Amino acid sequence: MSSSERRPATPPQAKVFLEGRYRKLSRDLPQTVFFCPDCKGHPRRRRGCARCEGFGKLTRDSVQELVGWVLGAAFKTRKHKFHGAGREDVNVRMLGAGRSFVIELIAPRQLDVDLAACEAEINRRNAGRLEVLGLHWTEKARVSAIKEARRAKEYRALVRTSGAPDAEALARVLGQRITIRQRTPGRVAHRRADLERERWLELVSCAPAEDGWDVLLRTQHGTYVKEAISGEDGATEPSLSGLLGVACECVALDVTAILDEEGREPEAAPAPAPRAPGFGADL
């Protein structure tokens, strides 16, 4: 008998899947761990890395870490994966009802966990930065369901302009769904293929604000919103700049709602799985 035949089979790793929503209230928090692109956070390479100065990351923490640290301690595991229903930029807040996520806890040694207490602890630790809502047991199938769903978004932007928008142009554009074409922006060219995408944009409102214009707009999934506002030197056509006849710059951006695919109704929260605490493990 070979050694492989004598060796007992390795038992499958238990996994717990939890679902909820997060509201990101600060502009310095990425969704997942923001590893340094030079050293990739490698324990040895990061020691001499000039970019991150040995830290291995470009931000102190992330939504993934702030949620994972509390849940990892409760379930007694240090291994987890974070699955978001899309993501926003580091400096973009996620407001409204929040963004859906599933966290996958790997090989937990404790299953009898009070999820309401975990949610309260996450929110207590991160008051003013991060809020988790509706944490509940879920199934592995929810990972692909939330990642593959096509959801339009509603955004509120503070826009700085080179002058007052043309009143007639603004009246023509308000409430109209406009088709735009976007090339991959320069800021993500290092990780995205250079493609031209066709998306829609809808300007809901545009009102004077203290430092510019308060703009509310809805966009199709996959729209680069900052570039849809500025135009990025013609990489997006038409852009808000072109439509309003003035140069526009996005100074601050918030996601205010996750909508259905057509951009009309807010995404409905899924019903919690009917499972009692302690029975959330999948093998």
Structure, described:
By secondary structure, the protein is α+β, with helices and mostly antiparallel strands. It folds into 2 domains: 9-149 and 269-282, Alpha-Beta Plaits; 153-258, Alpha-Beta Plaits (2-Layer Sandwich), CATH 3.30.70. Helix content is 19%, strand content 32%. The protein has helices spanning 3-6, 63-75, 115-125, 141-148, 167-173, 225-230, 240-244; strands at 15-24, 79-84, 93-106, 130-137, 153-161, 177-183, 196-209, 212-219, 236-237, 248-258, 281-282. The chain is globular and about 65 Å long.
Descriptive key words:
283 residues, Alpha-Beta Plaits, 2 domains, 7 helices, 19% helix, disordered N terminus, disordered C terminus
Brief summary:
With 283 residues, this protein is α+β, with helices and mostly antiparallel strands. It has two domains: 9-149 and 269-282, 2-Layer Sandwich (Alpha-Beta Plaits), CATH 3.30.70.2510; 153-258, 2-Layer Sandwich (Alpha-Beta Plaits), CATH 3.30.70.3190. It has seven helices and eleven strands.
